[in-house]
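During the first year of the project, the team set up a workflow for recording each protein of interest as an amino acid sequence followed immediately by a discrete structure-token representation. This format lets reviewers and collaborators read both layers of information side by side without switching files. As required by the reporting guidelines, we include two representative entries from the current panel. The first entry is reproduced here exactly as it appears in our internal archive.
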Amino acid sequence: CKNKVTRAGRCEDHQRTAKELGARPAYHQLYANPVWKVLRDGVLNLYPLCCKCEKEGKVTMANVVDHMTPHRGDMKLFLDPLNLRPLCQSCHSVKTAFEAQCRKTKQDPRTFYD
């Protein structure tokens, strides 16, 4: 494109949307909730290994507590201990990409744990 570039590094016709820039949804603020922090720490203390790696015969420390069913701000799902699984950062990144694909294909994202 030969348009004049703005301070953000793109011309007006090619500016990226907030979604493309990775803006977090409003419910992301729930992760600052003290109740969540206690629940998260409790899960990691009880289950210190990544459940996905463990299923594959690998031993990897978990450092992320994942919601099996995406909560999208639903507090009941957000704080439900039965909806939580410990993952390592690598498996969580794979699961996040898998969820994005599931939204396109209408597949159940919980199949990641099968």
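The second entry, processed by the same pipeline in the following quarter, appears below.
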Amino acid sequence: MTGVQTCALPIFLLTLPAVLALMACRPGELPGGASASAFKGIDITGAEYARRLDLPDPTGRERHLEEFRGKVLVVFFGYTQCPDVCPTTLAELAAARQQLGAEGERVQGLFVSLDPERDTPEVLGPYVDSFKSGFVALRGTPEQTKAAAQEFKVFYAKVPGKTDQSYTVDHTAGAYLFDAQGRVRVFSRYGAGVDTLVHDLKALLAQG
């Protein structure tokens, strides 16, 4: 119904607050329920969240949303040991940027780690670079990670494994798309596919 998913736990148990928030702020609704949105993802133009992101990259340099204005920005929360959602999302963004050709250079991704304990700078940077997606990796302290996730209404929780270091992390699966003016516009649901992502990136790029 919403496209907001987690890695393992039931959607309806975990993400209802985020789902309601996403649905409540969809603009462009016409009488009779028709939508005037130009996007195939969930149109969240005007959302009063996802306004700040201040985290260091693997080199220790503090990065901010504002520095990427002028580009269409894709923000995704995940972790390097994610078995399927995260690598699929990174691979799809790489494919989308390739399909966009020269315009793909105007698309910038940010991958925010939800597992700073294991996603050390030595692990995180090479992991993201391996997808050749153009993503910048971000990793904060546990406290910074929690604050960033709350700002973006992202759910995440550790799921214990057989050992202390073999846990997984259930998390909201989907990417936030920002226009070149730095405004969050679209929640791109996991599983929507490369063509849907390309369509929405083109729409944002066309807006300048």
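For the second entry, the following points were noted during internal review. The first strand starts at residue 42 and ends at 43. The CA atoms of residues 60 and 70 lie 23 Å apart. Both points are flagged for discussion at the upcoming steering committee meeting.
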